[in-house]
Amino acid sequence: MKKTILTLIFALVTITFCNAQKIEIEKVFGGYKYSQNENQMTMKDLVKTMTSNQQAFDLIKKAQSNNTLASIIGFAGGGLIGWPIGTAIGGGDANWTLAGIGAGLVAIGIPISSSANKKAKQAVELYNSSLNSTSFYEFKPEFKVISDGNGLGISMNF
After folding, report:
1. Facing residues of 143 across strands?
2. Domain locations in the chain?
3. pTM higher than 0.70
4. To the nearest 5 percent, what fractions of the chain are helix, strand and coil?
5. SS3 7
6. Is the pLDDT of residue 17 over 50?
7. Distance separating alpha carbons of residues 60 and 124, to the nearest angstrom
8. pLDDT at 8
9. 157: Cβ–Cβ under 8 A, 6 or more apart, which residues?
10. What is the rounded distance in angstroms from the CA atom of residue 31 to the CA atom of residue 108?
């Protein structure tokens, strides 16, 4: 009997404390900041965390791809803008056509980055909505005293 009670208590504690944790979203300039248990998460961390939910995983992978593409385009655009500015500051003859092309690349990268942010936010919201509802704060078992021909007992329903 003691083994049964200890097993039941161990199982209850395990279920209560071993559930997935919610990912927090905070709006910041240019996008969102994600954290879990007050630890900031990168896009790679989000992908690893969402492997258990296929829909959220697919969305976060698209967001990661868009984020990578936007970073590459933005970096190239920034370089093409910075080169003529540096040349002009150094006293040389700047090629402003490069700066114009760079500005165009940055303008293309902004909506791609915005799309990545929206998809990442959707993935996190989808992941959070699918978390197991039997977490520590939401676990509310019902206890009943029951009796029958064999004796008296306690019943726990959840």
Report:
1. 156
2. 20-131
3. no
4. 60, 20, 20
5. helix
6. no
7. 8
8. 57
9. 141, 142, 144
10. 16
